[in-house]
Amino acid sequence: MEYWFTAHHTEDVKFSVRVDQHLYSNENDLGRVDIFESNEFGRILAVDGYIIFTERDEFIYDEMLTHVPMAVHRNAKRILVFGSGDGGVVNELLKYDTIESIDLVEINDGVVEACREFFPDMAESLDDPRVTIYTENALRFIRHIETEYDLIIVDSAGFYGPGESLLTREFYGGCFKALKDDGIMVNQHQSPFYEEDRKETQKAHKRIVENFPISRVYQAHIPSYPSGYWLFGFASKKYHPVTDLDAAAWNKLHIDTSYYTTNLHIGCFALPAYVERALKDVEKMQD
Question: Of the listed 34, 150, 155, 197, which one is catalytic?
Fold first, then answer.
C-alpha cells in the first residue's frame, strides 16, 4: 500500500508526495506539526497541512532570505529573525563571522522541539552562543524596539493564524522603527501565481511600501512550494538591492552556497510582466 502526503494549494490544485513514514505529529493551540519521510524530498516539515520545508529544497529558501540582504549591507552585526524555528536561516547567517547576535522570535516552540529531534543538522545552529530564542508573538515583540537591528528577516510560515499580524501596517511600521538608519528588512512574499496567494502578496507589498522608502521584490524557484515559484521582499532605509550590491566583496568571503550567487542576485530582481503589474497595482494606491 502506498501512502501520500497531500498539500492543498487551491480548491482545485493539490501537491502530493509519496511518503515512506509518518515520523512525528503534534498539535497545540498554534497548529499541528507533522514530519514525514519521503524518497524524493527527504524529510518534510508541515504545519497545518502546509509544507514549510523539505530537506531537498530548503537551501533555496534559506539562502535567498539570507544572502541577498547580507551581500548588500556588508556590515550587518545585529540580526532579528521572525520564525525560522527550524534553524535554516540562522544556519546561513552564522556563515558570516561579522555577525555578533541573532535574536530569533518563534511563536510555536513545538516547531523548535520537533526540528531539534528530526532535523538536528539544521537546528544545531540554534545553540550557537550568538543566538537568543524568544517564544513570543512577532507584533508584540517588535512594538517597543527602536533603532536596534541592522537586518530583520521575516521568515513566516504564512499569513494565516498567528501570521495574520504580519500583514498589518503596525507590524511593518514596527520593523522600520526597529532598524538602524541603514537597516534592511527581507520577508517571504508568497507566490504570485494563484489568485488567493497573489492577494496576500499584494497586501504585504502594500504595507511595506507604505513604510519603507526603498522596496523591491525578488524571486526564486522552490519546487515544493505552491506553483514552484516564490517571491521575497527587500525593503531598506538606505540601500538599493542591486545598485548597492558589491559582488566582488561578497565573493571574497568564499561563503559556500548551493543556490545563491551574485549573478543570480542581480537577475532575481527582474520579474515577469504579470508580477510587475500586480505589484504596481498596489503601489499606485500610495499616490
Answer: 155
